[in-house]
Amino acid sequence: MSSLRRKWISDPAFTFFKKVLPPLSETEKEAMEAGSVWWDGELFSGKPDFNKLHQYPKPALSSDEQSFMDNELETLLEMLDDYQIVKHDRDLPKEVWDFMRKERFFSLIISKEFGGREFSSLANSTIVSRIATRSISAAVTVMVPNSLGPGELISHYGTQEQKDYWLPRLADGTDIPCFALTGPEAGSDAGGIPDQGVVCYGEHEGEKVLGVKVSWNKRYITLAPVSTVLGLAFKLNDPEGLLGDKEELGITCA
């Protein structure tokens, strides 16, 4: 271990913050460890192996992705007038909304099984980057449904019933999603959100069911004015042990 590293670990400020910061829940720990660092780990090691970097295959667009870029994407770019959008309309034109729905710009990451385009990360990022050269508003409108929130979460973690209902509607733009994370005091610090969900029994459609009662306060939710389905992040508690023997279940989404 380097002398710099030893000094940092023994620093009083580090010791203080280690004591006062709340511990990670199991859910938060799993989320933190779910990703990977790719070649970035080499770079930050201080002795990067560039030969290892060159061994990674170069990503390439599929024929479907390239065709979309050459046709649907180019058509959309020609439709965008950022000055008109920002200074006058304060919204995308109706024909742009209709075109993005029709050509499934909102379902780049949703599988073809549910009506999406099932594009790669390379295609997704390239499409959003190209749109951003003409209109940031339009780029963000395409980016949010294809990154944050309900579409991807339901694709990976939803029940079959949720997938069958929501994914086709998200794919064709019947529903526009947004994701609620940012709190008035916590900002986008997921570990600091005050929003709480409590596991409890309640009445739903005339039946007594097990569910979650949620209290929340969010702000700066991109696409909120036009969204029809909200992805919500909150801390879940089970004080009566209705799901198991743990009371604090960590951060979850609904």
Structure summary:
The chain has 254 residues and is of the alpha/beta class. It is built from twelve helices and five strands. α6 (63-79) runs parallel beside α9 and α9 runs antiparallel to α10 (136-143).
Sheet bearing the most strands, described? 5 strands, mixed
- Helical fraction equals 40-55%
Order of helices and strands: HHHHHHHHHHHHEEEEE
Structural class: alpha/beta
Indicate the proportion of strand residues: 5-15%
The count of helical stretches stands at 12
Uncertain regions: pLDDT < 50 for 5+ in a row?
A: none
Please state the CA-atom Rg, rounded to the nearest Å: 22 Å
Number of distinct beta strands: 5
Distance between the ends: 43 Å
Provide mean pLDDT, rounded. Answer: 87
Bulk shape: globular
Written account of the structure:
This protein has 254 residues and is an alpha/beta fold. The protein is built from twelve helices and five strands. The chain has helices spanning 3-9, 12-20, 26-33, 40-45, 50-55, 63-79, 82-89, 94-102, 121-132, 136-143, 150-157, 160-171; strands spanning 177-180, 196-204, 207-215, 229-237, 248-253. Helix 6 runs parallel beside helix 9 and helix 9 packs antiparallel against helix 10 (136-143). It is globular.
